[in-house]
Design goal:
By secondary structure, the protein is α/β, with parallel strands linked by helices. The protein is built from 10 helices and 16 strands. The longest helix is centred in the last third of the chain and has 20 residues.
């Protein structure tokens, strides 16, 4: 099925789009008119990977010429996810010709929205096409002398030292078995737990949570000092929280929902080849969590024994490590304790060590995806008399916060973004999953059963996905979300919201490569995508 869809996408990408870029459709100023780059249509003759594309070209995040591109609209018969669908497309109810959805339909003559339409003559939204004759650096033709606008083309002379444009994020999956996922409901609690707090709920104190978002996708996060988790390192760090998957109580290797039969970890790892890591996928402490299909990277598994020694040995099976590189890969005991604080639990020490190894491997460009085991302590007694749930919660929050602050101090070693260096906190996606989040509305015994048998997936996408909760938990059950709009839906089937969440992860790790997402599955997912991409 995936092969068939990919063939369709490739064939369609070479077909001219009706309302093509030189047709003067009403989306932005033409590039040859001297108009502000960050808007104009793409012209023939622009450089590859420079923002504007010639007919039949395929350049992500670019001005689209006849033949179309990714991150655009659906012109007549052409695949451009992230847009209003046009004639003949029947996905989930099908959209008629010219009908737009959020993030703007980009048919000939349509008016653009954010991440603007890239037809000829468009006046464009942010992240617009870059015109012909541009001197071109990574991801965007940069016109000589252009002053640029939001997400605009850069002036000529962008330094090549920053490296090529990043086409993928690195990723770390934290897989929590045996009830361990429940601790993350203390970091990003269900909005109804805080908004309607009762002492019988499984949360220590609503004063320990701060509201980051309200409205359609509310979000609360654990307070850390005077701020909140992740807010002190990076931008657009708020996670997406998906009600996705099913309760898998007491499973030590819980699985994320599958997409067209595939494992999303492997599907996303296949999108990371441009990072050039000698170890595409490294797994540690999570046996059976990663499976790959044909054409998808196989894992290098960390064996038994001392975690640091075993990780170094596993990486050595794929590449030579100099003494200096190995020293940089190994975290010290002092560094690990710096993340956990004094007297940590054994599971906190293990998690901090695995995340230190991930951070160091990413900094050295050795690994693209890390799949690691998280907590697995089945905390039924966390809220019993005399217990102190805040200790474990704050320990976990401190580890995750320190991990992202470490990433923020180092550049992505292989690529850049729009001609500028990119720190790793902007190019490492974090996906947190597990067997069961338990019931957030019952503190007594903290039962394994979750509302309507639901499960949760937390995703730090670095701005590629909308932040906040997609779906809703209440004491009486769950409400899922519509994959097209992202809004709460009482009629959306679980399979639809599950697949939208997983395709969103692929979209984020591939840095918005919609052609790749479509090649995997035609299922709708745009409701989870950010309206303003990085």
């Amino acid at each position: 099925m995936r092969t068939f869809l990919l063939l369709i996408a490739v064939l369609l990408a070479g077909c001219p789009s009706p309302g093509g870029d030189d047709a003067g459709s009403g989306l932005g100023s033409p590039s040859d008119s001297g108009a502000n780059p960050d808007a104009g249509a793409a012209d023939a003759g622009s450089t590859p990977d420079a923002g504007s594309d010639d007919a039949g070209s395929m350049s992500p995040d670019a001005g689209v010429d006849g033949g179309s591109d990714v991150d655009g609209g659906y012109d007549g018969g052409t695949l451009f996810p992230d847009a209003g669908h046009d004639a003949g497309v029947t996905d989930d109810g099908g959209y008629d010709a010219g009908l737009t959805t959020s993030d703007a339909g980009r048919d000939g003559g349509s008016s653009s929205g954010t991440d603007g339409g890239r037809d000829g003559g468009s006046s464009g939204g942010a992240d617009g096409g870059r015109d012909g004759g541009s001197s071109g650096g990574a991801d965007g033709g940069r016109d000589g002398g252009s002053s640029g606008g939001t997400d605009a083309g850069r002036d000529a002379g962008v330094s090549a030292d920053a490296g090529p444009e990043c086409r993928a994020q690195r990723a770390v999956y934290i897989v929590n078995g045996n009830g361990g996922l429940a601790w993350y409901t203390q970091l990003w609690p269900a909005p109804a737990v805080i908004a309607g707090y009762q002492s019988t709920y499984a949360y220590d104190d609503p004063a320990n949570a701060t509201q980051l978002q309200a409205g359609g996708h509310p979000l609360y996060a654990r307070r850390i000092g005077s701020g909140a988790l992740w807010l002190k390192a990076g931008t657009r760090v708020e996670p997406s929280v998906f009600i996705a998957g099913t309760n898998q109580t007491h499973t030590n290797a819980p699985q994320l929902p599958r997409v067209d039969g595939g494992n999303i970890m492997a599907l996303a790892a296949a999108a990371q080849t441009s990072l050039g890591s000698p170890v595409p996928v490294l797994t540690a402490g999570c046996q059976g969590c990663y499976t790959n299909g044909p054409g998808e990277p196989s894992q290098v598994a960390v064996g038994p024994g001392d975690l640091i020694d075993a990780t170094v040995a596993a990486i050595r099976t794929r590449t030579t490590l100099s003494a200096a590189t190995e020293a940089k890969l190994r975290p010290t005991a002092a560094q690990i304790q710096g993340w956990t604080g004094p007297n940590p639990t054994a599971q906190s020490t293990a998690l901090a060590t695995r995340l230190w190894l991930a951070a160091n491997a990413f900094k050295l460009g050795l690994v693209s995806t890390m799949v690691i085991g998280g907590y697995a302590d089945d905390p039924h007694t966390a809220f019993a008399a005399g217990a102190n749930p805040a200790r474990t919660t704050d320990e976990l929050a401190g580890i995750l916060d320190a991990f992202t602050r470490e990433l923020a101090a180092h550049p992505e070693p292989t690529c850049s973004h729009r001609g500028a260096a990119l720190t790793l906190d902007h190019n490492v996606a974090v996906v947190i999953s597990g067997d069961t989040p338990k019931s957030p509305f019952v503190a007594n015994g903290w039962p394994d059963g979750s509302p309507s048998g639901s499960n949760l997936v937390y995703v730090r996408s670095n701005g590629f996905l909308g932040a906040g909760w997609f779906g809703q938990l209440s004491p009486t059950g769950r409400t899922l979300f519509d994959p097209i709009s992202g809004a709460l839906s009482t009629t959306a089937p679980r399979s639809a919201s599950d697949e939208a969440a997983m395709l969103g992860i692929l979209f984020a790790i591939s840095r918005g490569d919609t052609a790749r997402v479509v090649s995997v599955s035609p299922a709708p997912y745009l409701g989870v995508v950010s309206s303003q991409l990085p």
